[in-house]
Amino acid sequence: MNKPVGVENPEICKVCGGKCCKTYPGLATPEDFGAPDIEKLRENIFKALSSGRWTVDWVNQDEGLYFVRPAVKGFEGSVFDHRYSGECTFLTPNGCELAFENRPESCRMLVPKIDERCDPQGYTRAVVSQRWKEYYEILMDVAIEVESVSF
């Protein structure tokens, strides 16, 4: 499966100053890390979590509703983090440091609007965590592995 491309509008984002990125990091999907290719997925999640700039968050632990997102600035290095707000680690004074195609799917698919009421296209924590559900075991195995080598 190819990653959705989305739209980028740097002019609108520059005027806004990245308010959405200052509020909460975008949500990544399994495809951002190589799904459905399990080995690619495992390898890419390992690299991302090991960098300390990505983290595993959740909606409901009992139901296995987890997802991956960039870390919140100042809290890099946490493999698991459940913050509800904070600035994305990849936001710089000049915008996102990630190339557009390497940003989380929810960031690539966000439709910027001049009135700062950008359209998230339905990429909620609940929706994205459902997409991760079939990869729950892999995500947990990799996250625990990264935690064990980090400490």
UniProtKB/TrEMBL annotation:
InterPro entries: Puta_zinc/iron-chelating_dom (IPR005358). It comes from the Bacteria. This is YkgJ family cysteine cluster protein. It comes from Fervidobacterium pennivorans.
